[in-house]
Q: What sequence folds into this?
């Protein structure tokens, strides 16, 4: 019964999308193409992440729906070009998951005792798929439009797979200290001799890259960690804004000392 309901609702969403794109549909929807929808796809993906971090099931349900509409919309655009349809998309991902999980779907498949072994086998299968595409670079399937933090982590993981990685965590910590010292040294030169934006930006980038690497070795996603910190900063500062508002003030009317006290209050209330 649940399966039929799911099929019905997906079919309904496809029909709604087709109507929106149809002759008597919405002018805005009719004007869209894959390129113009990219910002909305990014936005909806980020809102799903925000709902997850808020641990809000109702919001997550809503945001997943918005993201699902983006998938259906893109599939509809492709169907109009006779390229593929939503069924092809679903079949493609189902076939890929089955192929990449031989330990689950094949009786004669390998047996794994840990998630790490599963991930290693997953990467081996992906490597086999890449060889068929005749692209020799280990970075070939890292999207250029990834955020810089996520791209750094992906590059590091790819390099580590072929042996280009620190052997232990103390070496990684040492690299972070080295990059921090180089950044501070360059900062000191800027303070003494004037601005050299290119050099200090380069050293700052090296420091960030080393921190991403440290996070990777600790099993921490830098992208997720910074997303959580951004959300925490926003929440605490909004507490400052709301409290000041009850006092008939705005942050511009306040001073750093007062806002610092409110910041500490916000931390205690968490």
A:
């Amino acid at each position: 019964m649940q399966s039929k309901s799911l099929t019905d609702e997906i079919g309904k969403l496809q029909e709604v999308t087709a109507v929106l794109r149809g002759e008597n549909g919405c002018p805005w929807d009719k004007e869209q193409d894959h390129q113009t929808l990219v910002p909305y796809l990014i936005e909806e993906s980020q809102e799903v992440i925000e709902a997850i971090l808020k641990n809000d099931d109702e919001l997550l349900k809503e945001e997943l729906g918005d993201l699902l509409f983006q998938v259906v919309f893109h599939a509809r655009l492709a169907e109009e070009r006779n390229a593929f349809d939503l069924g092809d998309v679903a079949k493609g991902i189902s076939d890929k998951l089955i192929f990449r999980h031989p330990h689950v779907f094949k009786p004669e498949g390998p047996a794994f005792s840990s998630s790490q072994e599963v991930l290693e086998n997953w990467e081996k299968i992906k490597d086999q798929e890449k060889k068929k595409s005749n692209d020799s670079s280990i970075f070939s399937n890292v999207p250029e439009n990834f955020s810089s933090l996520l791209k750094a982590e992906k590059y590091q993981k790819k390099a580590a797979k072929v042996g280009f990685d620190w052997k232990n965590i103390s070496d990684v910590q040492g690299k972070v200290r080295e990059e921090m010292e180089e950044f501070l040294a360059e900062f000191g030169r800027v303070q003494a001799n004037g601005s050299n934006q290119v050099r200090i930006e380069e050293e700052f980038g090296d420091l960030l890259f080393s921190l991403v690497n440290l996070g990777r070795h600790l099993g921490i996603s830098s992208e997720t960690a910074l997303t959580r910190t951004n959300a925490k900063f926003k929440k605490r500062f909004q507490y400052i804004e709301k409290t000041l508002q009850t006092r008939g003030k705005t942050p511009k009317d306040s001073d750093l000392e007062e806002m610092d006290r409110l910041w500490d209050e916000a931390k205690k209330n968490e």
Observations:
- The domain at 146-220 is CATH 1.10.287.1080 (Helix Hairpins).
- The chain has a mean pLDDT of 91.
